[in-house]
Amino acid sequence: MTQRTDPVRVVAAGDHFVLPGLIAGAVEAELGGIAVETKELTLGWPLEPFGPVSEVTEASDAEDELIEALDGAEVLVTQMGPVTERVLNAADRLKLVVVCRGGPVNVNLDAAKAHDVRVCFAPGRNAAATAEFTVGMLLAAVRRIPDRAVGRAARPTTPTSTAAWSWRTCPSGSSATAPSAAGSRACCAPSVRRSWCTTPMCAARSTACA
Questions:
Q1: Which regions in the chain score pLDDT beneath 50?
Q2: Are the beta carbons of 78 and 13 closer than 8 angstroms?
Q3: Where are the domains positioned within the chain?
Q4: Which of 15, 40, 121, 156 would give a disulfide with 45, using CB separation of 3.0 to 4.6 Å?
Q5: Measuring CA to CA, which residue among 120, 209, 125 is closest to residue 170?
Q6: What is the pLDDT of residues 13-36, one digit of tens each?
Q7: 150 burial level (CB within 10 Å; 0-12, 13-18, 19+)
Q8: Alpha helix locations (H) across 4-144?
Q9: Cis link prior to 46 (omega < 30° from 0)?
Q10: Which CATH architecture has domain 8-127?
Q11: The whole model's pTM is what?
């Protein structure tokens, strides 16, 4: 097989999150000694929202910009570029679309097949981030971090009198007793998950009942 001498023409259509320079560098590293001519295009996301564009469900609204950039290009590497039927009709030399996402939701796959354009994507790209987020939410739920944060934010800081005290909502099925002699806290019953139901004069952090 005769090795081609002219460069592979690539469009790196990145955005403000996945920078086109990063895409271009990765492409050149993968191609090794093969000559490559890269054109960089910056799409608006996340400064501009993505959404449906023509017949694709999630993409940046930039068909005209992408068509102009793909003039003479053989490879498109993108995250948010709208690879619609209109774009594919205009990109007559395009042979490969690489999507930097878990699924090619920004590509009209039927139109790509009709134009003999192969489409690659990155399934599982967000797997690690999803796992980390899940563990973080589990820890937040176990430690009741959202409850404590909301309770502190909603609690008045300077009571004017005992009549102005407002009880924090006690657990369902429990009742708040009167403040202690020090006038600083009250305990919620029953004993199942007993916790302090604080007034504005209470300490910032709730303390379990003895």
A1: 158-169, 171, 174-210
A2: yes
A3: 8-127, 165-210
A4: 15
A5: 209
A6: 999 999 999 999 999 999 888 899
A7: exposed
A8: 20-31, 63-69, 85-90, 109-114, 127-142
A9: yes
A10: 3-Layer(aba) Sandwich (3.40)
A11: 0.65
